[in-house]
Amino acid sequence: MDDLTKSAFLNRPDLHVETEGEFKGWRTWSRDNFESHNGPFWHRMEDDGQIRCAFRVEKKHLNGMSNVHGGAFMAFADYCLFAMAAPVLQGPGVTVSFGCEFLDAVREGELVEGTGDIMRAGGSMIFLRGVLKSAERPLFTFSGTIKRVKRRMPAVPGQESKS
């Protein structure tokens, strides 16, 4: 992995690196209130450049059957898309497509890990796919598309938009 790609992964202004506990050295983003509330979700770059994401299942992640709620899997998988895309995204993006398959259930206390691949990174779209596992047991497969977006300047009161 080249230095530019690695620096794009490491240099987000909202990046938080955990300093203690099970996820010491793992990273998360502090800007996303939804993920902060529903996580914590974590990611790190392995020595080979692959992005690995993880979360420890807590009671708040469970449905009425005491398994991880499907929405928790989906939220975590969306987090994984952005973690995996971070080395090439180099700016803001939005999920424009997301597909998934539920394969197996997970209980409180289990570690869920996500890995995947960038299938194609174009000028405006990044196509990815991944899998969530507990140990070696596949739980959930997913694919998604991220669209790069340009930051828009806030409208100035009294001035018309020129778009």
Description:
This protein is an alpha+beta fold and 163 residues long. The chain has a single domain (3-148), classed as Hotdog Thioesterase (Thiol Ester Dehydrase, Chain A). 21% of the residues lie in helices and 36% in strands. The chain has a 6-stranded antiparallel β-sheet with strand order 3-4-6-7-8-5, with helices on one face. A two-stranded antiparallel ribbon has the order 1-2. β6 (111-121) and β7 (125-134) form a beta hairpin.
List the helices and strands and how they pair.
Layout: H1 3-10, E1 15-17, E2 27-29, H2 33-38, E3 42-45, E4 51-56, H3 70-89, E5 93-102, E6 111-121, E7 125-134, E8 137-148
Antiparallel strand pairs: 1-2, 3-4, 4-6, 5-8, 6-7, 7-8
Helix pairs in contact: 1-3
- Alpha-beta content class: alpha+beta
- What top-tier CATH class fits best? Alpha Beta
Gap between N and C termini: 39 Å
Proportion in helices:
10-25%
Flag low-confidence runs: 1-8
CATH topology: Thiol Ester Dehydrase, Chain A
Query: What is the radius of gyration computed over CA atoms, rounded to a whole number of angstroms?
Result: 17 Å
Strand order of the largest sheet: 3-4-6-7-8-5
Write the H/E string, N to C.
Answer: HEEHEEHEEEE
The CATH architecture assignment turns out to be: Roll
